[in-house]
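Researcher: We're teaching a course module on how sequence relates to structure. For the next exercise, students receive a sequence and then see the predicted structure as tokens, so they can try to spot secondary structure elements on their own. Here is the exercise chain.
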Amino acid sequence: MEHAPPVTPFVVPFAAIPVSSEPSRSRLRIRPFRGERRLGTIVPRQGVTLEVVQLPPGEDVTARRAASRCLLIVLEGRAELVAGTRYVVRSGDAITIPWNFAYGITNVGPTGLEALLVSFQEGAGETVKEPVTLEELLARNEERAQASLRTRFFGMLRPGELADPGDRRRFCDCLRVFSDAFQMLLFTRQATCGDAEHGALFATHLREELGHNDLLAAPDAAPAIFDPVLDATASWFCNQMFVLDNLDKTVVNMVLETAGFHFHQMAEPIFADDARAKYFETHHEVDAGHQQIGVHLLEGQPDHVYSRLSSVLERSWDMFETMTGRIVELVEAGRRA
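Model: And here is the predicted structure for the students to work with:
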């Protein structure tokens, strides 16, 4: 039962605004105004939400996508907003965040960070136009690629971000988990393909990528790390080779190779003097061509097939960003250890 709006002013103590029970791996605390009975009578039920967000000193929020247009007003403290580039924000600053834009928060100052998040929810109902042609599918792939480039994972490839040898070591160790899984993807895809045309393309790709994961082996021959989240998300792509048809597999490959093209282009100069530099050099040379493997076979499909391929594309990008987000968490956790 909704309560009527008050007819006189009232004061709600800050402690009375309940903390959201939304699960989070970070120590981010969210206090939605609608969670408090009296404030809930003031805030509209649709169109806008108001929340106080709090982060303690040293805590980070990994990149996430804004579900609607947002206005973030810093009430107290300072931090860095990671949104395509880095912005130092402090008390009194107001930050606009477009719908579906990836952003994160890092380097929270010694007094923590407290901010008012105002979300304009008309953007939450916006949907991406479903591709019904190959051109639209390819355009959507590029949109997702550009959005992914604004995440913290790719932000780590800016000069100076991985200057610390420990950070570089952890980053490469995490990357090796995916590289090992990708080798399994190549073998699994080949073993489950009975179509001659796709099979020939997949076999060429396998030969060109064979053994590249060995280039990421640790210089001291340490075994690959194990992290349940990273291992599960990296292995997801291999699992898809068992359950998808050849056209779907081509889309999964397109997503990974598109991400790989941008990644290795940015990473090669960063790791030029690293013991594992050969891995990045090799992929920088071949990834542009690998994006196109089998794409011509996607031409001339009926609308319902492009609808299905669109879903595969979105899921693949979502899993890629979940996996790379976990890499960021592991690298940054190592800094605090």
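Model: If you want an answer key for the exercise: The first strand starts at residue 29 and ends at 32. Residues 303-336 form the longest helix (34 residues).
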